[in-house]
Design goal:
Strand order of the largest sheet: 1-2
Shape: globular
Largest sheet: 2 strands, antiparallel
Strand content: 5-15%
CATH superfamily of one domain: Winged helix-like DNA-binding domain superfamily/Winged helix DNA-binding domain
CATH class of one domain: Mainly Alpha
Radius of gyration: 20 Å
Number of strands: 2
Number of helices: 7
Distance between the termini: 19 Å
Helix content: 55-70%
Length: about 170
């Protein structure tokens, strides 16, 4: 996208400068979350004995707040189905998820967390929420609400835009 083209969402050099400042901050955030090993640290802090992909699968089910098919879990994790099947099989073996019949298609199976899987996910989220809450503790309520709203809008818009690019590539 040419950021100098007003029709393409840019407003000239000022917009370029804004993006030049934004992109490194986004990279810094990504590094803080990934290199800072947020997921691994939260798993450890919560006393959980699962790996990152398994925790991600449990989080997908938690956020969905409804049983999902393997393919839907894979799509939300942005991985291939066989990878999720292996994760779900292991989580099921450990009693953290169970397969249930899809009420819309009796031949299909959905995956949902067990009470133990939900409790494990809740412990993980308490650790993460605690750290994020501490980072935002000095922010005024108005700033926290604005950040939540704007970050949500940005993530939603970027997700849609990137999906459009993926659709154009196929």
């Amino acid at each position: 996208m040419d950021t100098r083209d007003p029709e393409a969402g840019g407003d000239g050099a000022g917009h370029d400068l804004y993006l030049r400042e934004l992109i490194p901050r986004l990279a810094q955030l990504s590094n803080a979350l990934n290199r800072g090993r947020l997921t691994e640290r939260a798993i450890e802090a919560a006393g959980i004995a699962v790996d990152r992909p398994a925790m991600t699968a449990l989080l997908v089910l938690h956020v969905a707040d409804a049983p999902l098919r393997i393919g839907e879990i894979a799509a939300r994790m942005q991985v291939v189905g066989p990878h999720v099947t292996r994760q779900v099989n292991e989580l099921e073996r450990r009693g953290l998820v169970r397969r249930v019949t899809d009420p819309d298609d009796q031949r299909a199976r959905l995956v949902e967390p067990t009470a133990q899987g939900q409790e494990l996910t809740d412990r993980y989220l308490r650790a993460v929420f605690g750290w994020f809450g501490e980072a935002l503790a000095g922010w005024p309520e108005e700033d926290r609400r604005a950040f939540e709203r704007l970050l949500g809008r940005f993530v939603d818009d970027l997700t849609v835009h990137l999906a459009t690019l993926d659709d154009d590539a196929t």
